């Protein structure tokens, strides 16, 4: 038998959305700085098989993995913080577990036994966790030393009860020295004097202990650092030492959370609780961990500095919930800080740009156009459904005609094609077959291999190769230079529709070049770049899924460089971070 993986379970109490994902990711990052190999699992108690059919406005962004898994947005946090490549199995849902158990029952695997939540469901959860925790997720190919398990929902929820019970049993399966529980709770500030209250956390811990799990670490969310005596009071009533109680108060940015936890001694507590000193860590990997921490501190330092601000207008249809575009937001932040800028997001609801809004609500219409016109750059992200499509077309038109840096993602590429076909190529009836099936000129068409009858997991999903074309324009285009001159790149996809190949020749003859096509057939348009424009780039794939704090996504990097007037200098080889002692590079 190989080495025993250490497990850290992160649970939440009092309220949902308390920040378990960031605390789990930050904990994993700190362990990586020690040279440990870390993986993560997210448990979502909902009955859906995956997040693919969930509305972004209901559950936030659907994150896509290399293997095509459509998963919870927290897996995006894990990949960004830990620089790992996870699989669909790293996201456990009630639907997946029950489907697995029912399939076994139908095959007769249980030999006529009565199938029950305990032990069959709880055993299936534990077996899944143990199997996935030993799957390598990093470039080294090492079996993970530590697995972070985030338990979605709130302690006491009916739907999470089987997972709580499974973790109660799991602590005995793996042994005391290999299991640690971090409980994230809320310390609210109540009243005019702003007094911090510990009772909600006490009640949450009491509920957790009643279910058979005792927290080893308390991570307490609050607007302000602990007042005098709060840590000691929580220690007394929650049966942990004061050193095991952490104040996770509001910071300058989420990138400061690992710094905050390290300053309070989280690494020392985990090292003692899990006997991490006994793990064999190669010296070169330990050195990489030290370098990672130096780079992360520099990244967080830049986030707190007063840098020049670049405003990017994000023209979308889910703008009322920022989590709908969380990877886009992170990609913009990463790109901005790597070029020594702060990014300010100007959210523009796409439908507000349309003429119908001008008649219904003129104030909203003019405010939306004011935000769009004032921005240094424009980004049109992906989306589904017809609402707001014409507004996105207008945003692409404004960027093209007024030389404003533009980045289109998925639907953002398709609306750029529709706009160019209509207004430059004279195809007045150009539209997408997704929204106008019988349109005069289908500029965007349904992909022939896609299932029209089933919604879940049937799109073109996951990592696919894109090959840059061997044309005079493509060989020297900006986006290829931003990718380091690579002839082929791998990015993640999530779409059912594509640019109609029948109109590509005419579009390219007018200056809209499809510089990247799929490497499999060469007939699927993946990347476009407009000639004679400061930066007009769009991709059919989702580059935001592969952004990293210390290694930003090239299309986003190009947008921020162009919007801040630094693109030409960057492409000429000038070091934009020359004044920093620590260069941000993974």
Describe this structure in words.
The chain is an alpha/beta fold. It has 21 helices and 23 strands. The chain has a 9-stranded mixed sheet, with helices on both faces. It has a 7-stranded parallel sheet with strand order 5-2-6-1-7-10-11, with helices on both faces. The protein has a 3-stranded mixed sheet with strand order 16-17-20, covered by helices on one side. It is globular, with a radius of gyration of 25 Å. The two termini are 33 Å apart.
Write the topology of this structure.
Layout: E1 6-12, H1 20-32, E2 38-44, H2 56-59, E3 63-64, E4 70-71, H3 74-82, E5 91-93, H4 94-107, H5 117-133, E6 146-151, H6 161-174, E7 179-186, E8 189-190, E9 195-196, H7 199-210, E10 217-222, H8 230-238, E11 245-249, H9 257-263, H10 266-274, H11 283-304, E12 309-316, H12 326-338, E13 342-349, H13 355-360, H14 362-374, E14 377-380, H15 389-401, E15 406-409, H16 411-423, E16 430-432, E17 441-446, E18 460-468, H17 472-475, H18 478-482, E19 488-495, E20 497-499, H19 504-509, E21 512-518, E22 525-530, E23 536-539, H20 554-563, H21 567-571
Parallel strand pairs: 1-6, 1-7, 2-5, 2-6, 7-10, 10-11, 12-13, 12-14, 14-15, 15-23, 16-17
Antiparallel strand pairs: 3-4, 8-9, 17-20, 18-19, 18-21, 21-22, 22-23
